[in-house]
Design goal:
With 131 residues, this protein is mainly alpha-helical. It is 77% helix and 0% strand.
Length: 131
């Protein structure tokens, strides 16, 4: 799979997720993972599918198992992981991640990460955003 194909397939899968076609997005992200295992789009997409389904611990596991592939896309990975940790009530781990995010860039607003992921996926407890 060349970069153009990868970009097209990733865009298609993200569009499926954004419109609520979660089951349709999963095979595309699996294909990306199989065809380009070194690329971060596959694991990030698969974790996003699990988030959309409410399988927060599975989303965390995918991201943690794919740490090497995700090194080049650490900001997006951390955002998704933060959302999954909070939604699965793994608050100590979420706090550790939040602290590492703040250390990496003091200008980052980690609460905004959660707001944006809740808005994108329409998942999780909205009290986590405001509370």
């Amino acid at each position: 799979m060349n970069n153009q194909d990868l970009t097209y397939l990733n865009g298609l899968a993200i569009s499926c997720l954004a419109t609520g076609l979660v089951d349709e997005a999963q095979p595309a992200f699996e294909l990306i993972s199989d065809a380009a295992p070194e690329h971060s789009a596959g694991p990030i997409g698969l974790a996003s599918v699990e988030l959309a389904r409410g399988n927060y611990n599975e989303a965390c596991q995918i991201l943690q198992d794919s740490a090497e592939q995700l090194a080049g896309n650490s900001d997006q990975t951390r955002k998704i992981l933060m959302h999954a940790l909070v939604a699965s009530n793994r608050l100590d781990e979420a706090d550790d991640l939040r602290e590492s995010l703040m250390e990496l860039n003091a200008a980052n607003d980690d609460q905004e990460y959660l707001v944006q992921t809740h808005k994108f996926f329409g998942t999780g407890d909205p009290r986590q955003i405001h509370g």
